[in-house]
Amino acid sequence: xxxxxxxxxxxxxxxxxxxxxxxxxxxxxxxxxxxxxxxxxxxxxxxxxxxxxxxxxxxxxxxxxxxxxxxxxxxxxxxxxxxxxxxxxxxxxxxxxxxxxxxxxxxxxxxxxxxxxxxxxxxxxxxxxxxxxxxxxxxxxxxxxxxxxxxxxxxxxxxxxxxxxxxxxxxxxxxxxxxxxxxxxxxxxxxxxxxxxxxxxxxxxxxxxxxxxxxxxxxxxxxxxxxxxxxxxxxxxxxxxxxxxxxxxxxxxxxxxxxxxxxxxxxxxxxxxxxxxxxxxxxxxxxxxxxxxx
Length: 294
Prior knowledge:
The chain is of the alpha+beta class and 294 residues long. The chain folds into two domains: 1-48; 63-293, Alpha carbonic anhydrase (Carbonic Anhydrase II). Helix content is 26%, strand content 29%.
């Protein structure tokens, strides 16, 4: 009788063990399936997102695969530059005077930390362009960052911002040239910002695209080719997600001026009230790249 009870006990233990193992196996399978599904959805969402919506004007890889070793912006004051002889021109800049038709948009696709206002040129042309090693890149858009992203000598750390002009060659869409100009806050108003701020201010409550025009000659007086003849150059990335690399950076040594009141105004409708994190990415390490001073 005891032997029978023992056998029944052993059988019961084996059955319970089998059920437990089966249950664990099913749970593990469910976890694996869920993990696979989640990964698949995440990848699918990234692949479905356009680079335009993320400010990723270059490359074709999904956004999560863009961050590499050549990232922007950088703190230019921290690094020793290689100089190019005065007679050697790395770039030439062309800027059209007079009204240029543009479309102003609110670019909040990156989340609050990178929400910004972008200005797209309606008809990119050689009239607003950069020639780099004989190749012409047309200006397609520009936007502002507050605070300034690149740190350069003589920059006012308390009152500054930066404008990025984004150039593209129709046959080289995976490569961009971005020209950065830093503003210091001062007494004199900037006419270029004076034309755009009222448009941006209206877009805080109305995010519709707005047609307008800008005069690039009002950014600084005179010819861009002469005004921006000294600059830093390095290989980097976009400074908004997905941080795509393959970007040639030209950062002007000349600092443009803007009134402190204008910078404060930009803060009010983009930085302080709506986007407290700011619209500027912190400086990245230069690592093995070469910074060239022209």
